[in-house]
Task: structure prediction
Amino acid sequence: MLRGAVIASLAVAGAAVIAPHEANAAYLCGQGQICLYQNINETGSVAVEPRLNPDSPGFNPNGISNFQNSHYTNGQSLNDSVSSVENNSDYDLVLFENADYGGNSVIIAPHQTVNLTSVGIFEPGGVVSGDFNDEASSGYAFSL
Result:
């Protein structure tokens, strides 16, 4: 049900909810990958979590319901620490502020790179511009 509401919101709001920016990445996010970075501008430690990456044999269409046990390459938890995202896949990525896909969310469109410090946030009343830095606790990738 929630997934349907997010997809419907994306269709209404359009894929340009989050604007791309120039990247200076320490890790080169590969074709088809979704890369989560600990710092803004695609810097710091990176996580290329197989369950979120459609081209990975470990891809899970249900995503990750709790980032607590997912980690960056430096061993730190993804939970409440993602600051930028590079989505080089053909899928949309939805990040949620709470575990089990709860709370407010952001959608990173295919082939977009964003800092989560200024994004369109889906709230119960609609889409607002805001700061989602260090907020993500769950997420999944999907194709329309």
